[in-house]
Amino acid sequence: MALKHDLLMELEKSRGSYLSGQKLAEQFQVSRNAVWKAINSLRQDGYQISSRTNSGYMLADSNKQLSAAAIRAYLPEHLQAMPIFAYRKIDSTNNEAKRLISNGMQDDALIIAESQSAGRGRMGRSFYSPPDGGVYLSLVLHPRSALNQAISLTTMAAVAAAAALESLGSEPVQIKWVNDLFYQGKKICGILTEAVSDFESGIASSVIVGIGINIATEFPDELRDIAGSLDSPSINRNQLIAMIAANLLRMAADPADKSYLQTYREHSLVLGKQIIYWQNDISYTGTALDIDDQGGLVVADADGNTTVLHSGEISLRLAEQKH
Length: 323
Ligand code: BTN
Known about the structure:
By secondary structure, this protein is an alpha+beta fold. The chain is built from nine helices and 14 strands. Strands 3-4-5-9-8-7-6 form a seven-stranded mixed sheet, with helices on both faces. The protein has a five-stranded antiparallel sheet with strand order 13-12-11-10-14. The protein has a two-stranded antiparallel sheet with strand order 1-2. Bound molecules: biotin.
């Protein structure tokens, strides 16, 4: 029902303040009764909408529900028609993205969930994804060369997430090369990028960028030492998701523009520091010097010889800290 969706977008934009029923009716060229019915239907869907005589309707500021309509309300106009799939609970948004692609979906699309029962991380790890406290999203993109661009997209995704968080008022976050965001020494965000091949041609045609962020997440004992949370329950998660998607799609549309790497460098947790990295089970020590234009980490050994590390082949930690 289009009216319901349009009303939700308006309420979401003015979250926490009242909108006049009369004005809404005029804006959407419907009767006040139609507005009232649509509001009641939204309430039945779980939205906390209060009404007050002479003031109108207000979406409660505390409303934490994720919804496709609310995300759309925060997307720039040229992205508002993109498909958005929102779930209360799913195995993994990256898995759902794969299913949608194998069922023939060819659009860029966004998949979000309130919680994941089998959230996946890199290297076969799981990603803890409880309800209420986090953001779990997958963005499906179709770059011209999916395999080549998958690494850049991961780097862009880290910048997209850091910039969106900070512009919504979170404390500054840092990026640990290549794809984790850190806050107060603990990981608060992970990114899993997967290229999907077309079954018939065998050519990688789509990329799925999966991003998980702990906003106000309580962890079980075994994760508390390594996993952190932003502790920013007031962040509007619908707005955050829209900003991350818009940031990432903007950067991906112009891969020749490398200016995002400057933001990446400014947020880097490793540049200028001693690091230990492993390649094929052998450990090396070096100083992280720079991020090159391909997103590689330039490292110098004790003799000043430099080497460029590429993601996927190494695991890394700061020499003075255990992460
Ligand atoms: C990592 O830390 O190794 C990457 C974690 C990626 C988690 C996100 S949450 C949304 C998307 N769906 C998944 O199953 N994983 C990614």
